[in-house]
Automatic annotation (TrEMBL):
<dbReference type="InterPro" id="IPR043154">
    <property type="entry name" value="Sec-1-like_dom1"/>
</dbReference>
<protein>
    <recommendedName>
        <fullName>SNARE-interacting protein KEULE</fullName>
    </recommendedName>
</protein>
<dbReference type="InterPro" id="IPR036045">
    <property type="entry name" value="Sec1-like_sf"/>
</dbReference>
<feature type="compositionally biased region" description="Polar residues">
    <location>
        <begin position="550"/>
        <end position="560"/>
    </location>
</feature>
<dbReference type="InterPro" id="IPR001619">
    <property type="entry name" value="Sec1-like"/>
</dbReference>
<dbReference type="InterPro" id="IPR027482">
    <property type="entry name" value="Sec1-like_dom2"/>
</dbReference>
<comment type="similarity">
    <text>Belongs to the STXBP/unc-18/SEC1 family.</text>
</comment>
<dbReference type="Pfam" id="PF00995">
    <property type="entry name" value="Sec1"/>
</dbReference>
<feature type="region of interest" description="Disordered">
    <location>
        <begin position="541"/>
        <end position="585"/>
    </location>
</feature>
<dbReference type="InterPro" id="IPR043127">
    <property type="entry name" value="Sec-1-like_dom3a"/>
</dbReference>
C-alpha cells in the first residue's frame, strides 16, 4: 500500500486521518524494510517522542505483524543483537544521531543493518555527520524522512505536543524569549508533517493581529497565528520540491487560530459523555480504572480499560449528551436482559433489577457474551458515577448559570445570588463561573468589584491569577469592533453582541445543550467562503486550477467539486432502532462501510489548546458539511488542565504541570 497512490486528491481514499497515519507507519516505514532485508525479525528503536507517535496510531499487535520482535528505547542500554536488522524511527536531532552512530559504528555494531527513518526533515549537516563515518555507511539499509511528527489522538484530531504553548507564546514575559521562536518553529514543522502524510496542500487562512495599524503597537503574542501561518507556509513550499507527488495546487483548507477566539470553551462544563468523563473522573489520558469481580473468589480486583475507538459503546455514546447516553445504556441493558434467559433468571432472583455488579458476574456465567457485557457494564458504571457527581456537586445549577451568563439571560445579580445561596458548590466550579463572568464582563474586573466577587466566592489570590492571565490571550485595546462572531476583549467595555447568539434550527431535547464553541461557527463560515476578511487573511491566492473558482480572499468551496470518497467518521445521525442490546448499533460495522462522497478536507489548528467540545464539533460538521474536518492543536485540554496552565503563565521558575494544581 503506497501513500503516493492512496492519498491522491482525486482518488478513492476512504481512510480517516488516523488510519492514514497508521498505514504510513506500518507499511511505508516498517514493511518497506522487508525488500532488502534478509532478517525475518527486526528491532524497532525509537526516542521518547516517536514512541508516542507510534502508540497513538498503532497497536503492538500491528507492529509485531510487520516483523518487529522487539521495541527498544534509543536512550536505554540495549543488548547487542548482531544477527538482527534494526529500524530506527527517530527525530533528526544531534543527540539522536550521536546515539545512532554509537550503536552502528566500530567493529562490533549492535545490529546487522540499520534502516533509519526521521520524523521530520533532517539538516544537511547531520546527514554529513552520518556519511563521515565509513564503518556505519555500509550498514545503512535506508536513510529516509518520514515527515510524520504529530500525535493522532483521534480519527479526526492531532496534537503537536506543546503542553506549555500558553506559557511560551502568550505570557507577559514571552516577548523576546528564545522559547517563543523555538515553540513556533517546532509547531510549524509538526503541522506541516500532517500535510506531508495526507499528501494535501492547503490554502492557509489565519487570524490576523487585532492591532495592525499605524497608531498602535502590535504585541508578539497577538502575532502568533500570523507567524505560525508563515512558518507552515515555508515548510509546505519546501515539500512541493522535495516530496514526490506532493500537490502543486491547493487541495484543502487550513485555518489557524489561537485561544483568544473563545476563552469560554475551555472552562465551561460540557455535557457530552466524552467531555464529562475527562472533566469529572480521574482519568490518566484515556485510561479508566475500575473494580471487577475477581476470578479467584469473592474479592474484587482493579482493571484498566481504555476509552477509545475500538470500544463500540464508547464510539456510539462519546458525543451524546450525558442524559441521552444514560438513557441509551438503560435501553441496551433492558434489551440484553429481554433476549437472554440467564439474565432474566438473575433479574427475577434480585427483585427485578440488574446492577453493574450483576452484569459483571454474568460475564463469568455467560462467556460467549463476555465482551459485550464487559463493555456494557463498564459504561453503565461510568454513567452512574457521572450522574452521582453531577448530583453531589450541584452541576445542573452551575451549568444552567454558566449558559445563562453566556447567552445573556443572567448577569451580576444572578451570579451574586448564586454565590450567596449555593454553599455546596466546589471552589473549582465557583472559579470557573467567575472566569466565564470575567470573560463576558471585563470592566467588572478593573476595579475593587473583582476582589469582592472573589471574596464572596471564597477564592484565593492564586485563583485570581488564572482570571487575570486570561487577559494575555487577548490583543491590546483597539477601537475596532469585531464584525464576526463571539469575541472576547478584556480591555473594552462589554457590548450586547458579546454574548453568544442562539443557534436557530438546532434545538435539542436535552437541557444544557445550548452552548457551542466559536470554532464551530468559524468552520462553517470557512466552508462557505464567508470568513470575515478584516479578521482572517490567507497566505496563498487560489491557483487558477483550484477547481476553476474565481480569485478572492475567501474561496467558496462546494463539496461537489471534489470527488474524494472517505468515511464521515461521526455517529451523530445514527438511527437507534437497530439496537440489539450488545452490538451498540453496529457502530464499528457502520464506521468501516458507511462511505460517502466528501468534499475537500478542512484542517483547523488551535494554538494554546483545543477542547473536547471543539473535537466533537469537528465530527459533527464532517457529517453536516460532507467534508472531513480535522482538528489540530498544541494540546487537548480539559478544564482543570487549562486553568492550571493559565496559572503557570505567571510562574517564573521552571515547574511542571503536576507541580501546580487548581
Amino acid at each position: 500500500m503506497s501513500l503516493d497512490s492512496d492519498t491522491s486528491s482525486q482518488g478513492g481514499d476512504h481512510r480517516n486521518f488516523r488510519q492514514i497515519t497508521r498505514d504510513r507507519l506500518l507499511f511505508e516505514m516498517l514493511r518497506s524494510t522487508r525488500k532488502n532485508s534478509k532478517s525475518t525479525w527486526k528491532v524497532l528503536i525509537m526516542d521518547k517522542f516517536t514512541v508516542k507517535i507510534m502508540s497513538y496510531a498503532c497497536k503492538m499487535a500491528d507492529i509485531t505483524e510487520e516483523g518487529v520482535s522487539l521495541v527498544e528505547d534509543l536512550y536505554k542500554r540495549r543488548q547487542p543483537l548482531p544477527s538482527l536488522d534494526a529500524i530506527y524511527f527517530i527525530q533528526p536531532t544531534k543527540e539522536n544521531i550521536v546515539m545512532f552512530l554509537s550503536d552502528m559504528s566500530g567493529r562490533s555494531p549492535l545490529y546487522k543493518k540499520a534502516y533509519v527513518f526521521f520524523s521530520s526533515p533532517v539538516h544537511k549537516e547531520l546527514v554529513a555527520q552520518i556519511k563521515k563515518d565509513s564503518s556505519v555507511l555500509p550498514r545503512i539499509g535506508a536513510l529516509s524522512e518520514m515527515n510524520l511528527e504529530y500525535f493522532a489522538i483521534d480519527s479526526q484530531g492531532f496534537t503537536t505536543d506543546h503542553e506549555r504553548a500558553l506559557e511560551e507564546l502568550f505570557s507577559e514575559n514571552a516577548e523576546g524569549s528564545h522559547k517563543y521562536n523555538a515553540c513556533l518553529n517546532t509547531m510549524a514543522t509538526r503541522i506541516s508533517t500532517v500535510f506531508a502524510s495526507m499528501r494535501e496542500f492547503p490554502r492557509v487562512h489565519y487570524r490576523v493581529a487585532k492591532t495592525i495599524n499605524a497608531s498602535t503597537m502590535t504585541t508578539l503574542r497577538d502575532l502568533v497565528p500570523t507567524k505560525l501561518a508563515a512558518g507552515v507556509w515555508n515548510c509546505l513550499a519546501k515539500y512541493k520540491t522535495t516530496i514526490p507527488e506532493f500537490p502543486q495546487t491547493e487541495t484543502c483548507e487550513l485555518l489557524i487560530v489561537d485561544r483568544s477566539i473563545d476563552q469560554i470553551a475551555p472552562i465551561i462544563h460540557e455535557w457530552t459523555y466524552d467531555a464529562m468523563c475527562h472533566d469529572l473522573l480521574c482519568l490518566d489520558g484515556n485510561k479508566y480504572v475500575h473494580e471487577v469481580p475477581s476470578k479467584n473468589g469473592p474479592a474484587t480486583e482493579k482493571k484498566e480499560v481504555l476509552l477509545e475507538d475500538h470500544d463500540p459503546v464508547w464510539l456510539e455514546l462519546r458525543h451524546a449528551h450525558i442524559a441521552d447516553a444514560s438513557e441509551r445504556l438503560h435501553d441496551k441493558m433492558t434489551n440484553f436482559v429481554s433476549k437472554n434467559k440467564a439474565a432474566q433468571l438473575h433479574q427475577a432472583r434480585n427483585g427485578g433489577e440488574v446492577s453493574t455488579r450483576d452484569l459483571q458476574k454474568m460475564v463469568q456465567a455467560l462467556p460467549q457474551y463476555s465482551d459485550q457485557i464487559d463493555k456494557l457494564s463498564l459504561h453503565v458504571e461510568i454513567a452512574g458515577k457521572l450522574n452521582n457527581i453531577i448530583r453531589e456537586q450541584c452541576l445542573r445549577d452551575v451549568g444552567q448559570l454558566e449558559q445563562d451568563l453566556v447567552f445573556g439571560d443572567a448577569g451580576t445579580k444572578e451570579l451574586i445570588n448564586f454565590l450567596r445561596t449555593q454553599l455546596g458548590v466546589s471552589r473549582e466550579n465557583k472559579l470557573r463561573l467567575l472566569m466565564i463572568y470575567a470573560a463576558l464582563n471585563p470592566e467588572k474586573f478593573e476595579s475593587d468589584k473583582s476582589a469582592k466577587l472573589m471574596q464572596l466566592a471564597g477564592l484565593s489570590a492564586d485563583d485570581m491569577i488564572a482570571v487575570n492571565n486570561m487577559r494575555c490571550l487577548c490583543g491590546p485595546d483597539t477601537k475596532k469592533s469585531s464584525g464576526g462572531g463571539f469575541t472576547l476583549k478584556f480591555d473594552v467595555h462589554k457590548k450586547k453582541q458579546a454574548h453568544r447568539k442562539e443557534r436557530t434550527g438546532e434545538e435539542s431535547a436535552w437541557a444544557l445543550s445550548r452552548f457551542y464553541p466559536v470554532l464551530e461557527e468559524l468552520i462553517e463560515k470557512l466552508s462557505k467562503g464567508e470568513l470575515p476578511k478584516d479578521e482572517y487573511n490567507c497566505m496563498n491566492d487560489p491557483s487558477p486550477s483550484f477547481h476553476g473558482l474565481p480569485t478572492s480572499s475567501s474561496v467558496r468551496t462546494s463539496p461537489a467539486h471534489s470527488m474524494r470518497s472517505r468515511r464521515t467518521g461521526g455517529t451523530w445521525a445514527r438511527p437507534r432502532g437497530s439496537d440489539d442490546g450488545y452490538s451498540s448499533d453496529s457502530v464499528l460495522k457502520h464506521a468501516s462501510s458507511d462511505f460517502k462522497k466528501l468534499g475537500q478536507r478542512i484542517f483547523v489548528f488551535v494554538i494554546g489548546g483545543a477542547t473536547r467540545s471543539e473535537l466533537c464539533a469537528a465530527h459533527k460538521l464532517s457529517s453536516k458539511l460532507k467534508r472531513e474536518v480535522i482538528l489540530g492543536s498544541s494540546s487537548l485540554d480539559d478544564p482543570p488542565q487549562f486553568i492550571t496552565k493559565l496559572k503557570l503563565m505567571s510562574v517564573e521558575e521552571e515547574l511542571t504541570l503536576d507541580d501546580l494544581q487548581i
